[in-house]
Amino acid sequence: MRLPSKPRCRSEGFHRCRVGKIQPNVKGKQMMNSTADRIRDVIASSDVVLFMKGVPAAPQCGFSAAVVQILSGLAVPFRGVDVLSDPQIREGIKVFSNWPTIPQLYVKGEFLGGADIVREMFQAGELAALLSDKGIATVST
Amino acid sequence: MAMAGSDIERLLKGAFPDAHVVVVDLAGDGDHYGARITSAAFAGKSRIQQHKMVYDALQGQMGGALHALALETAVPK
């Protein structure tokens, strides 16, 4: 059985994700309402929002980089939200979506999934179809 | 605070007794894993639901002791 090659966080040139681990400003599953409101605002602000490590021009983790590459390949305009620069969003988004990892992709307010799901959907042609269904223009690659 | 591949496999097998589980240490650093889980329990579930079932099986380790786990879920043919 073959596992597809996956991007990974590399110590060279990439932020080492475990270094400087953020102490959550949330306790357990509680989240401050203000953080949830901020997340809701961000998700509503653009059709396609990617919560990621680093910025689109310089992703700091291989999983985030993979999703940026897919979206860029489809020429989808998206808003990248760097969770490394905002500890409240970093922990809050995991509670908000009940999803433990970054990146997280939202399309028209709906949580689509993390890097593995986005990649599978892209490879199956489902991502372009879904974006098109939602009225977001893409180019096929 | 890394996690052994055998621990990941044990948790997954515990949650999905029928499953065929393959865990691979992608980077050889005990920190970045890939897992392919084939189980009838995924039938009729969306990808998000399937991955959430796996994260639940890992009992909160994901994002904590377990830093990166590339997931692939499937239903047996």
Topology:
The complex is a heterodimer of chains A (141) and B (77).
Chain A: H1 33-45, E1 48-52, E2 54-55, E3 58-59, H2 62-73, E4 79-82, H3 87-97, E5 104-107, E6 110-113, H4 115-123, H5 126-133
Parallel strand pairs in A: 1-4
Antiparallel strand pairs in A: 1-5, 2-3, 5-6
Helix pairs in contact in A: 1-3, 2-4
Chain B: H1 5-15, E1 20-25, E2 32-38, H2 47-57, E3 68-74
Parallel strand pairs in B: 2-3
Antiparallel strand pairs in B: 1-2
Task: Write up this protein.
The complex is a heterodimer of chains A (141) and B (77). In chain A, the strands form 2 sheets. Chain A has a 4-stranded mixed beta sheet, sandwiched between helices. Chain A has a two-stranded antiparallel sheet with strand order 2-3. In chain A, 40% of the residues are buried. Chain A is globular and about 40 Å long. Chain A is of the alpha+beta class and 141 residues long. Chain A has a single domain (33-133), classed as Glutaredoxin. The two termini of chain A are 28 Å apart. Chain A has helices at residues 33-45, 62-73, 87-97, 115-123, 126-133; strands at residues 48-52, 54-55, 58-59, 79-82, 104-107, 110-113. Chain A is built from 5 helices and 6 strands, in the order H-E-E-E-H-E-H-E-E-H-H. By secondary structure, chain B is an alpha+beta fold. Chain B has a single domain (5-74), classed as GMP Synthetase, Chain A, domain 3. In chain B, 29% of the residues lie in helices and 26% in strands. Chain B is built from 2 helices and 3 strands. Chain B has a 3-stranded mixed beta sheet with strand order 1-2-3. In chain B, strand 2, helix 2 and strand 3 (68-74) form a beta-alpha-beta unit. The model of chain B has no long low-confidence stretch (mean pLDDT 92). The A-B interface holds A 1, 3-4, 6, 8-9, 17-18, 63, 94, 98-101, 111-117, 120-121 and B 22, 24, 26-27, 31-32, 34, 36, 47-48, 51-52, 55, 60, 62-63, 67-72.
